[in-house]
Amino acid sequence: HQETAERIDYVFKVVVIGDSGVGKTQILSRFTKNEFCFDSKSTIGVEFQTRTVTIKGKVIKAQIWDTAGQERYRAVTSAYYRGALGAMLLYDITKRPTFDHVARWVEELRAHADNSIVIMLIGNKVDLVELRAVPAEDAVEFAEDQGLFFSETSAFSGDNVDSAFLRLLEEIYDTVC
Ligand code: GDP
C-alpha cells in the first residue's frame, strides 16, 4: 500500500484488543501490509503500524496499535488507550471463551478510553468455519446491545479485513470530523 507523502488530513489512532491468540497481530499485518505470517511473533517491541486511506476525499493515516502480547499479563495500560478514536475488539469464532471475555474488554475500554471511541467487534478466523463455536447471531445481539459495530473476518484469507477497518475509519470520521 503506497503512502501518500504529500498530504495527510487526519491521523486516527486505533487500538486492537482481545484475548491472546485471537489474531490481533495477523489482522493488523493483513490490513497494513496485506501479509499473513505463519507463527510469527515479531511484533514484540513494535508499537503500531500505519496505512493511509482516502475517506470522503480526505487522506487519513490510520495508526493502528497492537498490544504486542501485553494482554497476556493484563498489562494493557491507559497509555495504550490514550487518544484512541477507534478499537477493533477481536475474538476467535472457534474459541467460545474469547467471546465470553468480550464484555470484559468493553468494560476496559469504557474505563480507560475516550467516551466517544468507536468500537468494532470482530469475530476472526471465519476460514475455520467448520470449527465455529460462536454463532454470528450471539455476536450480533451483543453488538446491538452494547452499541458496537460487528463483522466477521479472516486474517488468513483476508476476507472482510479491509472492509471492517474501512467501516471503522468511516465511523470515526463521521464522529470526529
Ligand atoms: P494475537 O495473540 O491476538 O496477536 O494472535 P496472532 O495474530 O498471533 O494469531 C494467533 C494464531 O492464530 C497464530 O497461529 C495465527 O497464525 C492464527 N490466526 C490468526 N488469524 C487467523 C485467521 O484468520 N485464520 C486462521 N486459520 N488462523 C489465524
TrEMBL record:
GO terms for molecular function: GTP binding; GTPase activity. Belongs to the small GTPase superfamily. Rab family. This is Ras-related protein RABA3. It comes from Populus tomentosa (Chinese white poplar).
